[in-house]
Model the fold of this input.
Amino acid sequence: MLGFFKKRNTVKQYEKLELINDLPELPSSVEYSSFFKKDEPFLYFNRKKVKQAFDSFNEEQLADSIYESIQSRWVSDICRQLGKSYSIYQSQHFQLVTCENEKYVGSFVRSMENIHQRISKALGSIYVEYETRLPIFIIDNNESYYQYIGNFYPEEGTFAQSSGVFLRDVIPHFVFPKNDYAISVASHELTHALVSHLEIPLWLNEGLAVNMETVITGFNPFRLSQQKHQKHEDFWGEDEIQEFWSGSSFSRPDEANELSYQLAQLITRTLAENHNAFYAFVNDAHYSDSGEKALNTHYGIGLADIIENVFGEGDWTPAPKKWKDFTG
Done:
């Protein structure tokens, strides 16, 4: 009987990389160390310095080659900064830095590649294919995790807790805290990554991510029950809706955070019922007016019309001139 049972052959979807210590020769006017902020716990890019350097390159191909080599060196340097127990692994679409064992790495990589395939297929013409692999840092303690991502938040303020982020930096990358790997978080953040080339409003960005998260996991954490609907009616007013359109309500540490995600999911799901119009709308929507002009072009309605159908009459139209009151 034992002859009928064979061990399944599994193809390894990743390889372990050696840390990189040097770079191909850069133009004499450019130094690798000049790309980063000074006196920081991690290598954070100085966007102004990077732009100045890349603007000085004459050939696009040369710039692309240098970008790829800088990414490899930077990922190695972050790996060193995180500690000796960390290693770098590479798959088709990702570079993973973690101190977890290879069994975990194999499971993580398979999940991420599968999610990438499903999300890119679902997004269709909306998503962008990156020319280089996307780095992922899994940081093994919360103190270091929040220290790292803190560089990407305003210096002052109170913000909602984080279980993983996609950072739209010079080199776009993911950062996750060490915990039981959550497919829902990866689905959400990978959606952000694949639409990061679009200048869409935050409510649409989060609406896409939450709805894709639901498609991938089959679980809807923001389902709008009758009780939650009442919470929405009690919360949203003319000032609060401007916080939503500006995007500032998503970073509030109170109930506005969850309610913003729920409302974004509801609006996005409603619009997505008309597939052709929706793809055109997403490609044209701009954060400067919260997508109002694009919605009028492709649906013949305004954002206020959608909100009015949910909460009744009110002054729901995006008013960008008021947003500075919430965003500084």
